[in-house]
Amino acid sequence: MHKINIAIDGPASSGKSTIAKIIAKDFGFVYTDTGAMYRGVTYLAIKHQVSFLDETALIELIENYPITFKQTDWGQAVLIQGEDVTQALRQPEVTNHVSEVSALPGVRDHLVKVQQKIAASGGVVMDGRDIGTTVLPQAEVKIFLVASASERAKRRYKENQDKGIKSNYNTLKKEIEQRDYTDSHRETSPLKQAKDASLVDTTGFSIDEVVATVESIVKEKM
Ligand code: C5P
Fold first, then answer.
1. In-domain check, residue 217
2. Are 23 and 211 in contact (CB under 8 A)?
3. Ligand 1 atom 6, closest CA
4. Total structural domains in the chain?
5. According to the annotation, is 123 in a ligand binding site?
6. Which of 37, 49, 69, 192 has the greatest count of CB atoms below 10 A from its CB?
7. What pLDDT is recorded for position 1?
8. How far apart are CA 147 and CA 3, in angstroms?
9. Are the CB atoms for 69 and 17 separated by under 8 Å?
10. Is the pLDDT of residue 2 over 70?
């Protein structure tokens, strides 16, 4: 049976990875978090004291320290040279600089090729910002997941609270809005709904309700 690919795009904290992981599990697909790849380069730049503007040096980091994924009971671990960096990639320092790094065309070019290779034989649920427009324009299912900025900040705030991380709601909301602005105004592959993507607004809906909506769209294409 031909395996379809599912592209899930949308702004920061719209629930993409939560939904994508559940869909992948339910249909037996492989989940790929492309945001983790951009976060990985940003993490490496901080670790190796490489400027966020030095495209050549950043590409060297990508080549020298490939990012890999390991499926786990709870979802997916991100590894760099065997080291589990899943939590490190969520640090505020990485989050607040990742949009600068991801705006560089050479960095995108490299990572898009890696992502296209992963999806080459189908059966992938990939989430990001440009999956439906640039990485997998032929994906059989394209979802553009959105939610209001206040709802997204609320979710992030609660997530932090549950993890025992102190945060400020207004700061989180500002950071989310800033990242969305940078991601949707860059020249190369900006965050944008693909013409043939289904728009799913998750504001006010539970995870189960969003999963049911997305799964009904997927089933139509299988
Ligand atoms: O999805 P996540 O919030 O982890 O993504 C982190 C950042 O990586 C985004 O804000 C964006 O700058 C970048 N990104 C991107 N293209 C993708 C995935 C993520 O530019 N396909």
1. no
2. yes
3. 35
4. 1
5. no
6. 37
7. 58
8. 29
9. no
10. no
Ligand 1 atom at minimum distance from 12 CA: 3
Is 1 contained in some domain? no
With a cut of 90, say whether residue 128 has pLDDT above it.
yes
Classify residue 192: in a domain, yes or no. Answer: yes
From the alpha carbon of 89, which atom of ligand 1 is closest? 4
- What CATH number is given to the structural domain containing 18? 3.40.50.300
pLDDT at 166 over 90: no
Ligand 1 pocket test, pick from 14, 16, 38, 159 with the greatest ligand atom count within 8 Å of Cβ, gives 38
Contact 116, 171 (CB under 8 A): no
Domain membership of residue 218 (yes or no) is no
pTM of structure: 0.95
Instruction: Give the domain range for residue 94.
Output: 6-209
Say yes or no: CB of residue 202 within 6 Å of ligand 1.
Answer: no
b/e 10-44 (16+ beta carbons within 10 angstroms → b): bbbbbbbbbbbbbbbeebebbbbbbbbbbbbbbbb
Provide the CB-side half-sphere exposure for 166 (13 A, CA).
Answer: 0
Note the pLDDT of residue 74.
72
The amino acid at residue 89 is: L
